[in-house]
C-alpha cells in the first residue's frame, strides 16, 4: 500500500470526530473522496497530506510516517491544492508557479533550464501560460484554481491531493481540468481528490470513497452498485439522475 491511514483518531471539537478510520491508496491510483458537507472529507485529505496530525493512529506514505517527515521532505513527494486557495501576496502567475520548484531547488537558488522546462510543462497542462504576467489578485476564482494546480504540478509530486479542485470552474474548464488529472495519472502520479461533482467523479475516478459523519461508509469501484445505493441513502436523493 503506497498511502495508508491506520486507525486514525481526530477531533475538531465536541461535535465532529474521526474515530478509528482506515484507508489505503495504491501507488498510481486515482481515488475520489465524496460525501455531504461536513462529512469530514477535507479533514481526511489534510490528514493524508500531513497538514493535520492525528491524535492517534498513523499516516504512512511509502514506508515513512508523515509525522517523522519535515515540510520540505513532504513537499518533494506530495503536493496539496486547497479549495479556493488564496495567497497573502500579489505575485505574478509565473512567480507563483515557480514556487513549486523551491522544494527541489531551494528558496534562493536561481532556477535552471530544467526548472524552466518543468514550469512550461505545468503552464501548458493547465492552460495558464497566457496568464504568466498577470497578478494573482486580478484572476477569477477559476483561473486561480488552475494556477494553484500548475504550482502543484511544478513540484513534480508522486502524490497529488486536491480539495474541491473544480468547484469554481465552468464546465469546459472542469472537463479540461479532469483530463489534465488523467494525463498526470497516466504518467504515474497518485491522485486523491475531494469532489462534489458526482457525475464527473464517477466518470474519471477508478475508485470512490463515500464519507458520512467522520467515517468511511464504503470504498468501491466507481460503478459499483452497492456504492450507488449508499450514495443515494447518504445524500437522501432517490433519483440517480441527479447524482
> What's the shape?
globular
Low-pLDDT segments, ≥5 res: none
What is the H-and-E element order?
EEEHEEHEHHHHEHEHEEH
Main β sheet profile: 6 strands, mixed
Ends distance: 30 Å
Strand tally, please?
10
**Strand line-up in the sheet with most strands:** 6-7-8-3-9-10
User: Which structural category fits the helices and strands?
Assistant: alpha/beta
Number of helices: 9
Share in helix = 25-40%
Instruction: Please report which band the strand proportion falls in: under 5%, 5-15%, 15-25%, 25-35%, 35-45% or over 45%.
Output: 25-35%
What do the pLDDT scores average to? 91
Sum this structure up briefly.
This protein is an alpha/beta fold and about 240 residues long. It has 9 helices and 10 strands. Helix 5 (about 115-125) packs antiparallel against helix 6.
Protein traits:
single chain; 243 residues; alpha/beta; six-stranded mixed sheet; four-stranded antiparallel sheet; 10 strands; 36% helix
General description of the model:
- The protein has 243 residues and is of the alpha/beta class.
- Helix content is 36%, strand content 25%.
- It has nine helices and ten strands.
- It has helices at residues 41-49, 71-77, 93-98, 102-105, 113-125, 141-154, 171-186, 198-204, 225-235, and strands at 3-13, 16-25, 30-34, 56-61, 64-65, 78-81, 159-163, 190-194, 207-212, 215-221.
- The chain has a six-stranded mixed sheet, sandwiched between helices.
- Strand 7 (159-163), helix 7 (171-186) and strand 8 (190-194) form a beta-alpha-beta unit.
- Helix 5 (113-125) runs antiparallel to helix 6.
- The protein is globular.
- The two termini are 30 Å apart.
Amino acid at each position: 500500500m503506497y498511502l495508508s491511514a491506520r486507525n486514525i483518531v481526530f477531533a475538531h471539537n465536541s461535535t465532529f470526530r474521526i474515530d478509528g478510520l482506515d484507508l489505503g491508496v495504491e501507488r498510481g491510483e486515482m481515488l475520489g473522496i465524496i460525501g455531504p458537507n461536513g462529512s469530514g472529507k477535507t479533514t481526511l485529505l489534510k490528514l493524508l497530506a500531513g497538514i493535520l496530525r492525528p491524535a492517534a493512529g498513523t499516516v504512512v506514505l511509502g514506508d515513512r510516517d508523515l509525522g517523522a517527515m519535515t515540510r520540505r521532505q513532504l513537499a518533494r513527494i506530495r503536493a496539496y491544492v486547497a479549495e479556493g486557495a488564496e495567497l497573502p501576496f500579489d505575485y505574478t502567475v509565473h512567480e507563483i508557479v515557480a514556487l513549486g520548484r523551491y522544494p527541489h531547488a531551494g528558496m534562493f537558488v536561481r532556477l535552471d533550464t530544467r526548472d524552466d522546462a518543468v514550469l512550461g510543462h505545468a503552464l501548458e497542462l493547465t492552460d495558464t501560460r497566457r496568464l504568466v504576467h498577470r497578478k494573482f489578485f486580478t484572476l477569477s476564482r477559476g483561473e486561480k484554481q488552475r494556477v494553484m494546480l500548475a504550482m502543484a504540478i511544478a513540484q513534480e509530486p508522486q502524490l497529488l491531493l486536491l480539495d474541491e479542485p473544480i468547484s469554481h470552474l465552468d464546465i469546459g474548464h472542469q472537463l479540461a481540468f479532469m483530463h489534465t488529472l488523467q494525463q498526470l495519472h497516466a504518467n504515474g502520479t497518485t491522485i486523491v481528490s475531494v469532489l462534489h461533482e458526482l457525475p464527473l467523479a464517477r466518470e474519471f475516478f477508478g475508485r470512490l470513497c463515500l464519507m458520512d459523519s467522520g467515517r468511511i461508509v464504503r470504498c468501491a469501484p466507481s460503478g459499483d452498485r452497492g456504492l450507488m445505493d449508499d450514495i443515494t441513502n447518504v445524500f437522501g436523493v432517490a433519483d440517480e439522475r441527479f447524482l
